Structures are given as C-alpha cells and as structure tokens.
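Q: I'm a student working through a structural biology exercise. My instructor gave each of us a protein and asked us to get a predicted structure, then write a short paragraph describing it. Mine is DUF1492 domain-containing protein. I'm not confident about reading structure output yet, so if you can add a plain explanation after the tokens, that would really help. Here is the sequence I was given:
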Amino acid sequence: MDKNVLIQYVDMVEEIKDLRRRIHELEKQIDRIKTEGTVKDTVSGGMGGTQHFVVEGFPVPEYSRKMMLLRSRKAMLEEKEAELLELTNQVEEYIGSIEKSELRIMFRLYYIDGLTWIQVAHRMNRMFPKRRISYSEESCRKRNARFFEEN
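A: Happy to help. First, here is the predicted structure for DUF1492 domain-containing protein. I'll explain a few features afterward.
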C-alpha cells in the first residue's frame, strides 16, 4: 500500500458528495413536477389546422425518466459507499502502519476527517499545547510532503 490509497480515498469522498448533490437536485425536480402537477400546451388541428386546443395533463414521460434516473443514481451511491467503506479500511491500515504517532494523527485529520491543513494545525496545537514550536499550516503540509518524499 502506498500514498495512492490516500489520494483515491479523497477522490472517492468527493465523488460521493457530488453524487449526493445530484440526487438532491433530482429529488427537487421530481417534487416540482409533483406539485405543479399538470402541463399545458396549445395544439392546432381540426378544420385544416385552424382550430386550437389546449391540452392539459401530467407529464408522465418526464416524471418516469427522472424517477428511473433517481433510482439508478441511488443504486450507484450505495455501490460507491460500499467501495468507500472498503477503501476506508485500507486507508486506516496504511495510516496505522506509519511509525510516528504525530504523523498518524495528522494524516487521520487531513485524509480521513477531511480537514484543511490550517484546521489540522489548530487541532494539533490543541492536542499538544506544551509543544515548544506550535504547528502551522505550512509545517503540517511540509511534514506530509517530506513523508511521501522519503517513502
């Protein structure tokens, strides 16, 4: 296992967030179709196309397409979440194999919890208040970079 597991994990988390956002938007569109209920259209016909009729009804084809898309996206989300769970185990295994406790904590905060480097620095400073030199965004980022240069 190497750092690619961490990168893949972060990418998959973002992919799942995007998929959830798309599902939410689709659900809003379906709700809008349900609340508005009917659509109207004017058609010409009869007597050589001179008569005009107003046709009103529920948009069944559009509703059906969106429901089918929603079901497929929800199935995809379940599949991705199962993959993410497996990947999370691999990431935690990889982070657990790092020798230095300080780096393990940093990596969990950044990669698993999804914090920014500045947030990681603040958390580390709270965890280790008696440290002579406090953590900064740059120091955390550098430690990450150095770790991967060495390994």
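A: Here are two points you could use in your paragraph. Helices lie at 3-36, 60-96, 101-112, 117-127, 137-150. DSSP finds five helices and two strands in the chain. It's a good idea to check both against the output above yourself.
Q: Great, thank you!
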